[in-house]
Amino acid sequence: MTVRDGRVSEIRGYPSRTEAAEHAGLTARAERMHVDAVVPILNVSSLPDSFAWFEKLGWTRKWDWSSDGGEATFGAVGCDTFEICLCRDGQGGRDDSGVWLAIWTHDVDAVYECCRREDLEVLRPPQQDESWGVREMHVRHPDGHVLRVSQPIHHHH
User: Fold this and answer.
1) Do residues 26 and 6 touch, judged by C-beta distance below 8 A?
2) What pTM was estimated for this model as a whole?
3) If 145 and its partner were Cys, which of 28, 39, 98, 155 is the partner (CB 3.0–4.6 Å)?
4) How much of the chain exceeds pLDDT 70, in percent?
């Protein structure tokens, strides 16, 4: 690695400039988001039809959710260790443009503080622990993509 004028100019042996800069002491490691998983959330017109389509590809239906006990509006399919969420009626997106992407981390509040510090558009700050077992926030990219940053809630009894 070569550092010139306080910037990493060459990173042989490091997978990214960020990791090279951390190693050189130019960036504090704690400021970086730590990601455990990334899950795409696709807007679909029908959950049952989408489950059937993915099953033809060999994916399995993992779960679905309804806010009122009626027809499900959210669900997921899985294959191996990967998951894709399916969402009806464009929940979370701006006028159905852009992607809604779930990012799993271990500290949503730290990500929220970073977003505030950097003046990013937070659509939904972290609130109470959600009934579906997560703590989450939503932040919007300037082109309309929404990142749903979540962490699992671990209840200790």
Assistant:
1) yes
2) 0.58
3) 98
4) 83
